[in-house]
Amino acid sequence: MPPQTCEICHAARAQILRPKNHARICGPCFISTFEREVAEAVTTNNLFQPGERVAIGASGGKDSTVLASVLKTLNDRHGWNLDLILLSVDEGIQGYRDHSLEAVKRHSVQYGLPLKIVSYADLYGWSMDQVVAQVGKKGNCTYCGVFRRQALDRGAAMLGVQHVVTGHNADDVAETVLMNLLRGDLPRLSRATSIITSTPSAAANASSGETGVSFTSVKRSKPLMYAYEKEIVLYAHHRKLDYFSTECIYSPEAFRGSARTLIKNLERIRPESILDVVQSGIDMAKLVPDANADGPVSCTGKGKKQSYAYAVEEDDGKGGCGSTNGRSSGGEMAEMERKLRQDEQAEANDTEVEITSKSKTNVHTQAEAAKLNSSNRPQPIENVVTIRPKQINGKGMKNRQATPLKQKLGQCERCGYLSSQSVCKACVLLEGLNKARPRTEVEVGGE
Amino acid sequence: MAESISLVVEFTGGLEMLFSDQRKHRIAIPAKDAKGQPSNIAFLIQYLCESLMKDPRKEMFVLDGSVRPGILVLINDADWELEGQEQYELQPNDNIVFVSTLHGG
């Protein structure tokens, strides 16, 4: 095959096949294109205010490393005047996080950005190694996920920062969209697909972490959410960025792993699918009633209505942890698997979905179904699949939400973190841990 | 004496752990495959799996006879999709990089 030339500069040899549009471009053109596209995502969505103090959630992995490098580059190039800080969470996992934090420390020096590390041990009195020693490897991601979200907010509060950016990429968002679809959790789509969300957060007073909790709203944004994971890795490769890429030594989460494998398989056949899933998620989120309306801040940017989605006490499968088999989804994992079992049961009982008998008898084979679907759009009325609203039948269905989840915000009565429950998830988990712990002098962080 | 081709093969993005925790490997592979065809990337992948990879978790590198989806292959710093993928015929001193995108961020 003769070498192909770059479609942009028409001079150098093409090195990159872009997944979103199949463009064949050279390394230098790729780097400038990638940076320009991130800058566009930032400016068209008004992510930053001039002079804003912004914490970059930094794990030392590829995504946050590229995010830090690109934001630093763009901030200097475009004079955004942002005050950028690296914010890392030390979960306390020896042989994993200690190594990745070394990468973050190097980045702090290389990019000239200050670094703040907050640790689970300091915040909660428990490192993840201790949690795992207590609860075992199964289910520990729940603790890690719940703790991480609060840790980033608390770290931001300590820094006096009201905006945390994370390295979520298009593949991550597509994965989350699929997972939300697969577990019937459409109200969460809004947050997963919003480039900017608002996290009401408890901000401890500067002097003391124990008393005088005040509240500030911490924004979260994902400047790389339209960037393919492939391009993030290639950007790091061509810029020779040094990042950390070892697995978390604790258990991965199977459900996200399956969604991830599906996404990667789709990418090989049709790379556009990833951004298409992201766009579908964005479009579907708009159709979910009230999911968008609860946001405390409504931001009107360039005539485009944009609202923030709440993000409380949740984890979204990002943080430092990642795995070949899948990233942890943290706090939702156990609950989700329980829900899944219930859904299976419900399906077996035929309580949730009814297909009209006519369409059942009409469609015998996949080929026929495909023919019907392709030739009849919109489908004729006799093929309409009727989906009944979910019913509470007392057989394990009582936890299902028939209507979109509306989060009513209060404040955790123990630590002051904003929570829809009287005691936040982290404090509930800590209570269980502390009860089992032989030593009693341990104080729970934030209590 | 069969001819061989020397290559530099690199594993990054977490794949190095499958290959003795070593990023860069200088190897020599037969110039022709078992059928007498010039060695290509498909042959190299098979060769790496059989001869270089000590880790038993082959599925973390190869799935269904090809590189696992999510692993990028660079041939002399260019996307392998631009070079003919598995069919690319190896040249002496080629640099082949395997980068995993699957590891944490």
Automatic annotation (TrEMBL), chain A:
GO terms for biological process: protein urmylation; tRNA wobble position uridine thiolation. Residues 354-365 have a biased composition (Polar residues). It is found in: Cytoplasm. Residues 335-344 have a biased composition (Basic and acidic residues). Keywords: Cytoplasm, Hydrolase, RNA-binding, Transferase, tRNA processing, tRNA-binding. The keyword tRNA-binding applies. GO terms for molecular function: hydrolase activity; nucleotidyltransferase activity; tRNA binding. Residues 314-377 are annotated as: Disordered. It comes from the Eukaryota. Its EC number is 2.7.7.-. Residues 54-247 form the tRNA(Ile)-lysidine/2-thiocytidine synthase N-terminal domain. Its main location: cytoplasm. It holds the Pfam family ATP_bind_3. CDD domains: CTU1-like. Plays a central role in 2-thiolation of mcm(5)S(2)U at tRNA wobble positions of tRNA(Lys), tRNA(Glu) and tRNA(Gln). Directly binds tRNAs and probably acts by catalyzing adenylation of tRNAs, an intermediate required for 2-thiolation. It is unclear whether it acts as a sulfurtransferase that transfers sulfur from thiocarboxylated URM1 onto the uridine of tRNAs at wobble position. Prior mcm(5) tRNA modification by the elongator complex is required for 2-thiolation. May also be involved in protein urmylation. Belongs to the TtcA family. CTU1/NCS6/ATPBD3 subfamily. This is Cytoplasmic tRNA 2-thiolation protein 1.
Automatic annotation (TrEMBL), chain B:
The keyword tRNA processing applies. Coiled coil: none annotated. Pathway: tRNA modification; 5-methoxycarbonylmethyl-2-thiouridine-tRNA biosynthesis. It holds the Pfam family Urm1. Gene3D superfamilies: 3.10.20.30. The modification 1-thioglycine is found at residue 105. There is a cross-link at residue 105 (Glycyl lysine isopeptide (Gly-Lys) (interchain with K-? in acceptor proteins)). It comes from the Eukaryota. The keyword Membrane does not apply. One of its GO terms (biological process) is tRNA wobble uridine modification. Keywords: Cytoplasm, Isopeptide bond, tRNA processing, Ubl conjugation pathway. Its main location: cytoplasm. C-terminal thiocarboxylation occurs in 2 steps, it is first acyl-adenylated (-COAMP) via the hesA/moeB/thiF part of UBA4, then thiocarboxylated (-COSH) via the rhodanese domain of UBA4. It is found in: Cytoplasm. Transmembrane segments: none annotated. One of its GO terms (cellular component) is cytosol. HAMAP family: Urm1 (MF_03048). Acts as a sulfur carrier required for 2-thiolation of mcm(5)S(2)U at tRNA wobble positions of cytosolic tRNA(Lys), tRNA(Glu) and tRNA(Gln). Serves as sulfur donor in tRNA 2-thiolation reaction by being thiocarboxylated (-COSH) at its C-terminus by the MOCS3 homolog UBA4. The sulfur is then transferred to tRNA to form 2-thiolation of mcm(5)S(2)U. Prior mcm(5) tRNA modification by the elongator complex is required for 2-thiolation. Also acts as a ubiquitin-like protein (UBL) that is covalently conjugated via an isopeptide bond to lysine residues of target proteins such as AHP1. Belongs to the URM1 family. This is Ubiquitin-related modifier 1. It comes from Polychaeton citri CBS 116435. The gene is URM1.
